[in-house]
Structures are given as structure tokens and as C-alpha cells.
Amino acid sequence: MPSRILVVDDNPVVRTIIKNMLGDNGYEVVGEAEGMDDALAAYKAHRPDLVTLDFSLVKDNGLALLKALRALDEKVKVLIVSGTASGKVVNILKENGAKGYLPKPFNSAELVNAIQGVLAA
Amino acid sequence: MNLSESARQHLLKVIGVGLKKSAERLSKISNTHWEVKTVSAQTAATEDFLAKAGHGPADSKYYGAYFSMPGWGFLVLFFVQSGTALAEVFLPSGMGEGRVNFKEQEVVAEIANIMVGALAGTLADTCDMVCILSAPEMGCAKKETLLKLALGRFRAGGEDVSIMTDIHLSSDALASECSLIIFANPKAISAFGYNEQPT
């Protein structure tokens, strides 16, 4: 049974690229979201195995969304996918429950490798 | 207010480290080599600097992406044709009909985000600060217009401009180039451990 993924990014281009990469590699994308409200609603509806999350969202605070997801489900597995390369921020995100970090840009193999690492954690 | 020469050189060195990472990311996105061509820096937003940084071919339009983090503003400018060329290589070839459904500006926004993220992360880590980069604010207009808008956004937050840096990167293989203009306020500069010397 394929692992089920929720994709959260405020840029529709990125969401589509990630969905296509995941689909090509046998993952099931159960939902996509661009902000906190629809991400939490999608998580409740689908209970995915993993969430990919870009924490630099237009309307919402990505760290707040990460905390909200953990409040919903303390076992949630979140892979942070982001263009920001601050080591301090990555550490804070991991201290708040993110299981992995994948810097942009990435290719399909790098995405799959990162997802496998988080799922195995 | 003026920065001491040693402070200015230190700041440019840190920016240079971040720019190298930005160029590497652009290279990875486009599968071509990008490099930093020129860097010029000036304390305070003088009309001369603005005129030079905002100079472009008459009637040519640019994609502009503005980002901010406390004390800093970043404006990425792609000549529209450069943005188009980058967007074309950014989207995976297997996307089929999906490729034509995206607004080119959305693709350029993401490319700019990836590029500036590398630089912003370097600056934040150097100061040992937690800085989260804003999402991009996009526009498509003449270079001078975008520069004025970005400077207005930076100043609207009550920020004084301490230093402006104008940077050009290019890829010969892709026949593309971009400009990156950085604003920083006195507090941001002092976070590097240098205080401005009043004139």
C-alpha cells in the first residue's frame, strides 16, 4: 500500500511539481493545501502518513502550522521543504517536531530520499 | 551615516558567501552555470545609486520579487525574457498540459524565493539570529518602478536604509541575467558586530 502524503505549499507550481514527483514514485497524494486552515482540514480528513510543508507561507506562519499539526496529532510526520537555508530556523523546526528538512531546489530522487528518511523515523 | 571601510568589507564578504550559494541554486535549477558578475554597495539610498540600479533598456519590463526579513529587504529582478527562459527549465519536462496552466510569474516567484533563501539564510546564521524570510511580493514593470516600490515597502516599515547593494548574476549558457538589490537598516548592520560611524 503506497504511503499517503499531504502537500502544503502556497505556490501552486511547487505543489504540482511535488505531486508529480510523488506520483511518479508510487506515493499517493491525498490532498494539497496552501495555508493553515486548509492544511489542518485536509489533515483531519485524510490522516496522511506524511506532510510536506513549506514554512514560508504567504498568509500563515509555517511554524504555527507545524505546532497546530502536532497538537492535532503528536505522531504527525512532517518534512519541511523550503527555500530558506538558515540553520537556526531548521533547528527550531526540528525542535518543534519536524522530522526532516529538504532544501529547495531538489530533484525527484532527493525528494524520495527525504520522504523515506522521515517515514522510517 | 557611513559604515567604516572594514565594516563594509566584512558585510560584502558575508553577502558574497550567500551569493555563491544563490548562484549554486540557480545553477541547479537551470542546469547551467550562473555566476556573480558585479557587486556594488553604497551607504544610504542616494539618487545616483537608485538611478544606476534602476537603469534598464527603455520600455523593457522586468519581473520583480520583493522579500523581507527584520532589518533587510531583497529585490530580485529578472528581465522578462530571462524569467521566461528560467521558468521553462524549472518546470519538469514531463508535466504535459500542466506547464501551460501556470502563470509565469508564479514560477519566477519560486525561483526568486529559492535564490534569496540561500542568501538570507547565510546572513541570519552569520548574525546567529532567527530570521524567517517573507513570501515574495511580485510585480512586472520597468526596473525603476519596481525598485521604487521595493524601497517604499522597506521604508514603510519605519526602516532607514543604511546600505544598498546592487548585484548582477548571469548565465551565458541560458542567455539570462538577474539583479539582486539588498537594503539593510542600521540595526541589521550592527548585528554583524559593527556599529555605524556617524559623520
Quick tags:
heterodimer, A: 121 residues, alpha/beta, five-stranded parallel beta sheet, 5 helices, globular, B: 199 residues, alpha+beta, six-stranded antiparallel beta sheet, 7 helices
Polypeptide structure, described:
The complex is a heterodimer of chains A (121) and B (199). With 121 residues, chain A is α/β, with parallel strands linked by helices. Helix content of chain A is 47%, strand content 20%. Chain A contains 5 helices and 5 strands. The longest helix of chain A is centred in the N-terminal third of the chain and has 13 residues, at 12-24. The two termini of chain A are 18 Å apart. Chain B has a 6-stranded antiparallel β-sheet, with helices on both faces. In chain B, a hairpin with a 4-residue loop joins strand 5 (163-171) and strand 6. In chain B, helix 1 (5-30) packs across helix 5 and helix 3 packs across helix 5 (104-126). The radius of gyration of chain B is 17 Å and the shape is globular. Residues 195-199 of chain B have low confidence and may be disordered.
